[in-house]
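Collaborator request, handled under Task 6.
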Amino acid sequence: MTDVHRTIDAVWKLQAARIIAGLTRMVHDVGLAEELAQDALVSALEQWPASGVPDNPGAWLTAVAKRRAVDHIRRSRRLEHGQGRLAHELERQDREHGSGGDTEQDDVLRLMFVSCHPVLPTEARVALTLRLLGGLTTGEIARAFLVGESQIVRRIAAAKRTLAEERVPFELPGGPELAARLSSVLEVVYLIFNEGYSATSGDDLTRPELCLEALRLGRLLAGLAPHEAEVHGLVALMELQASRSAARTGPSGEPVLLHEQNRGRWDRLLIRRGFTAMLRAREIGGPPGPYVLQAAIAVCHAQARSAEETDWARIAALYGALARLLPTPVVQLNRAVALGMAHGPAAGLALVDSLTGDPALRDYHLLPSVRGDLLARLGRLEEARLEFERAASLAGNVAEHAFLHRRAAEIPAPAAPGPTLGQAAREFLERGGLDAGTVRSYGQTLRRLRLAVGDRTPLASLTADHVARAFTAAWGEAAAATWNRHRSAVRSFGAWASMEHLAAGLDRRAETRPRTRGIGPAQLEALWNRPDLPLRERTLWRLLHESAAGVTAVLSLNVEDLDLDDRRARAGDSWVSWRSGTARLLPDLVAGRTRGPLFLTDRRPGPSRVPAQADLCPETGRRRLSYERAEYLFKQATRALDPAGDGYTLRRLRYPT
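Structure tokens returned to the collaborator:
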């Protein structure tokens, strides 16, 4: 990455929230505002390497984004307004709002509360706000939530659609609504801070700009809700944690553990601010919430003049109270650290071991890191080394990865008693006689096992209990077919390695396949006769019903593969055919197009979401309609027909009643 690109990335992280917030005020559509902001970012990537970085890069991005917003509004309202009058109106609004700090702060706060609106489920509120206000990528958000990236992508896309469809106003809530929506906003702000304080990816341990942004948003919230103790508790927590930033890394950017930090480098101003915010929270009173409790823990660390003087007994008690209020696995892991310091490593290890099968922590590098530290303090060095190696393999941050590798290397490795799990897995997959699909399937199973147990674990020490814990964490809630597929892979691996006992703790699950019922004739008739049904949806649904083909196969159809005379189309190695209902609709849907996907999205993709060439229509610039979007539209359209009120899935169009 060049210096200019690094500058653009840094500017974007700092300015994205302000730019998107200002655009949302103009266009009243969060999704469109982000696309316009991304257009401005693309312009910077194209122009700045040649012309140089502007003196005020944030203002440059804002100006370009606003010009694009004005152009969009002009195009969309040309029939409603005279172009000159519209331009004058937009310029007047821009002069009234200006670019002053107060207006920008208000816009960012409005954007926060819009992103956290009650029409969205909690997880979607948090993911969307992290994306818009924190400038985080979907991968970074996924790691913050300990879920898959595709799940975050779907949450954000669904959240934007919901906000647009519900016409959520761009305004600050008031009265009781403010208190009701505050908790999710606080959660978002703290997650932004945590991503800055301990970056989940990249070369550096920290991303200071995110910490500063979260602190700024927290202070603004404290001014907006001065009588909410949890707001001041969060501000105190962030101020106190941020006070340790300078001491958290060594000369080469390597992490420095809390008990090894030079406390003279802690920022006394931030500590005083944290104490002040904590006093405000206590003055407000009431039962302490999770942020007030975490701030109280941070106060204990800040008050100790040295690591030895830390009141670990009080910290352990505070974590106990926090765990009763917020019994998440991450809180329990932090509590285990405190117990290990207050009552000895054996006490901490007992709690950590109870968490090893928790699905939420299966790829969380701090779990084996904490376990390794406790094992080392107990003198179980070989086990500790394996845990540090496993933690390093899970760490997404380069600095943490290197730090954990060094901790593992500091413990001498004994002479290898035989092959490791990683070596054996590679030999198993590379042997002859396995087709590509089997290698891929077995590889998924063994990769999960290697992550859970550790690549360098001696194969001879692998037990059925290790395997059972890994399976429970990874596939405990999975469908029976998925569980059985992975179980079969372990059985094959165990037989090859002469360790048939590995699958002893994995019972085969009964697979039941409930019959899928179709949609009734009366309901279908009501659906076909809807006058407001768009042509694309009408054609897609008819085609699915008449062809009985799979949804994926139908959505993969291309215009050039259609044979309208024979009423069929090539779909991979098979054919999809249809009857008269679809035949009447297809010519209008194609509308003269000769190439590209048959079913297209409504709008062109934004610059940050460029699809594969095969999924892009060369004539319209629009992309192939996704399965998720098609499913969502069908569910929305059939809610009234479904007695349960949930709406039907597209698969039900292919089955008879």
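The cover message to the collaborator said: "Residues 41 and 61 are 7 Å apart (CA to CA). The radius of gyration is 28 Å. Please let us know whether this matches your experimental observations."
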